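Dear H.,

Thanks for agreeing to be a second pair of eyes. The structure we're designing against is below in C-alpha cell form, covering all 464 positions.
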C-alpha cells in the first residue's frame, strides 16, 4: 500500500504542481500560449485515455506488471521533462508522463480490491482519498517551494526531477513487496482491442475541445463533442455484443448497480468543481494579487490540510454511515466555498488571499469526506476480477469531469475578466459560484442514492 500510494501521489501531483511553474516555463523556453496549454492539458489528456485500457490489462494479465512498467515510464518521462530545451521536447515528455500515470493509477485501486476484504477496504480507500486530495491541493505549494529554493530558471525543472529518486525507490520496493498472482489464476481472454480503440477515440474527441477550449476560437470545436457521442454510442453497441461471449473492456452491467452508477456520477460532478478551484484561484493570486508562487501555494494549503484530516476519518466511518457521509461532506464543501465568496466580497487587495484561509479549510474538511468514501462505496459491489477496469472507469469520469469543470469555470472566469476591465476579484468570485453549482449537482446525486437506499431498506423490512 505504501508503494502504491506514493506512486499514486506522484502521478496526481503532476496534475496541479505545474500550474505555479507556468510563468517560469514560459519565460525560460519562450513558449506561446498554445504550447503552454499543451504542457498543462496534454498530461490530463493522455492520462484519461490510458486509464480504462490499463485497468483492463491489469485485471486480465496482472496488476503488478502494469504498475511497474507504468511507474518506470513515468520516472523516465519526468527526467526527460526536466531536461527539456524546447517546447516540443517538453510537450512530448508531458504526454508520455500522462500516459504512464494513466497506466499506474487504476492498478492502485485494483490492488486495494485485491489485497483487502470488503469490510477492510474503508481504511486503505481513506488513505487513497487523502492521497488524491493532498496531491491535488499541495501541488501549488510544493511547486512554489521548489521555485523559491532553486530560482525561477531551474525551479520548474526540479518540479519534474523530484519524481526521479522517488520513482526509482518505488520501483525497487514495488518489485519486492507487490505480490504477483499465481500463474494458474491468470486469464488469457481477449483484451477487447476493438472496444479499447473505440473508447480511446471517443474519450479523445470528448476531451480535446475541452482542454483546448481557450486556444481554439469559435464554436466549430464543439462538433468534436458530437463526434465523440457518435463514437461512444458505437462503443456501447459493440460492448453489449462482445460482452455476451467474452469479457469486454467495460462491464456495462456495472451501471445497473445503483451504488456504482450514482457514485460515478458524483465523482464526475465533484471533480468538475473540486479541481477547477485550484486553476482559477492560482490565476487570481499570482496574476491578480501578484503573489509569488510560494505565497500562492501557501494560500491554498488549508484546503489540503483539511482534506487530509477528514479523509482518514471518512475511510474509517464510511462502513457505518454509507453515502450519508458523502452528503454531509458535499454540504460542508458548498458552505465553505460560499463562505469564500462572502469573504471576498468584503476583503479586497493583497489581503484577500489570506482572508479565505478559514473558508478553504472548511471546504477541505468537507472534501475529505467526499472523495475516499465515495470511491469506497462506488466500488463496494464490484467483483475483484473487474476491480481495475471499474476503478479506471471511475477515474476516467473524474478526468472528464475535471476537463469539463476547468473549461466551464475557466470560460466564466475569463469572460468576467474581459468584460469588467481586468477585475480579477470579480472574475474569481463569479467562477466560484459555478464551482459551487457543480458541488450542489453532486450533492443532488448523492442524496438520490441515500433516499433510494432508504426506500429499498423500508421495502425489505415491510416484506419480512
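And this is the sequence the design step returned. I haven't edited it by hand at all.
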Amino acid at each position: 500500500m505504501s508503494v502504491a500510494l506514493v506512486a499514486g501521489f506522484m502521478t496526481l501531483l503532476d496534475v496541479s504542481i505545474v500550474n505555479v511553474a507556468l510563468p517560469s516555463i514560459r519565460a525560460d523556453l519562450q513558449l506561446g500560449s498554445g504550447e503552454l496549454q499543451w504542457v498543462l492539458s496534454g498530461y490530463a489528456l493522455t492520462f484519461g485515455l490510458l486509464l480504462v485500457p490499463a485497468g483492463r490489462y491489469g485485471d486480465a494479465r496482472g496488476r503488478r506488471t502494469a504498475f511497474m512498467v507504468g511507474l518506470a515510464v513515468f520516472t523516465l518521462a519526468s527526467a526527460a521533462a526536466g531536461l527539456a530545451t524546447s517546447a516540443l521536447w517538453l510537450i512530448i515528455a508531458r504526454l508520455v508522463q500522462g500516459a504512464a500515470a494513466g497506466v499506474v493509477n487504476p492498478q492502485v485501486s485494483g490492488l486495494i480490491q485485491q489485497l483487502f476484504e470488503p469490510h477492510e477496504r474503508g481504511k486503505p480507500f481513506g488513505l487513497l482519498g487523502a492521497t488524491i486530495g493532498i496531491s491535488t491541493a499541495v501541488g501549488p505549494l510544493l511547486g512554489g517551494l521548489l521555485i523559491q529554493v532553486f530560482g525561477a530558471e531551474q525551479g520548474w525543472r526540479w518540479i519534474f526531477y523530484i519524481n526521479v529518486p522517488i520513482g526509482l525507490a518505488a520501483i525497487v520496493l514495488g518489485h519486492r513487496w507487490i505480490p504477483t498472482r499465481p500463474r494458474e489464476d491468470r486469464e488469457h481472454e481477449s483484451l477487447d482491442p476493438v472496444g479499447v480503440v473505440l473508447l480511446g477515440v471517443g474519450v479523445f474527441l470528448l476531451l480535446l475541445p475541452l482542454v483546448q477550449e481557450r486556444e481554439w476560437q469559435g464554436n466549430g470545436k464543439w462538433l468534436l463533442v458530437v463526434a465523440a457521442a457518435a463514437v461512444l454510442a458505437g462503443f456501447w453497441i459493440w460492448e453489449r455484443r462482445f460482452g455476451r461471449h467474452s469479457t469486454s473492456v467495460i462491464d456495462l452491467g456495472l451501471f445497473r448497480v445503483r451504488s456504482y452508477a450514482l457514485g460515478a456520477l458524483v465523482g464526475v460532478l465533484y471533480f468538475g468543481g473540486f479541481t477547477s478551484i485550484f486553476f482559477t484561484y492560482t490565476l487570481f493570486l499570482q496574476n491578480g494579487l501578484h503573489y509569488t508562487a510560494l505565497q500562492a501555494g501557501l494560500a491554498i494549503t488549508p484546503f489540503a490540510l483539511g482534506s487530509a484530516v477528514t479523509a482518514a476519518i471518512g475511510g474509517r466511518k464510511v462502513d457505518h454511515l454509507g453515502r450519508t457521509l458523502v452528503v454531509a461532506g458535499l454540504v460542508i464543501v458548498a458552505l465553505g466555498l460560499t463562505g469564500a465568496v462572502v469573504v471576498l466580497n468584503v476583503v479586497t487587495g493583497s489581503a484577500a488571499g489570506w482572508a479565505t484561509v478559514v473558508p478553504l479549510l472548511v471546504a477541505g474538511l468537507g472534501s475529505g469526506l467526499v472523495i475516499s468514501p465515495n470511491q469506497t462505496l462506488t466500488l463496494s459491489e464490484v467483483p475483484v476480477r473487474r476491480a481495475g477496469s471499474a476503478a479506471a472507469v471511475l477515474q476516467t469520469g473524474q478526468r472528464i469531469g475535471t476537463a469539463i469543470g476547468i473549461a466551464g469555470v475557466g470560460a466564466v472566469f475569463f469572460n468576467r475578466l474581459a468584460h469588467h476591465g481586468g477585475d480579477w476579484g470579480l472574475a474569481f468570485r463569479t467562477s466560484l459560484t459555478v464551482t459551487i453549482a457543480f458541488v450542489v449537482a453532486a450533492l443532488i446525486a448523492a442524496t438520490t442514492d441515500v433516499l433510494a437506499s432508504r426506500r429499498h431498506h423500508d421495502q425489505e423490512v415491510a416484506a419480512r
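Two observations from my side: The CA atoms of residues 408 and 434 lie 8 Å apart. Residues 122-161 form the longest helix (40 residues).

Warmly,
E.
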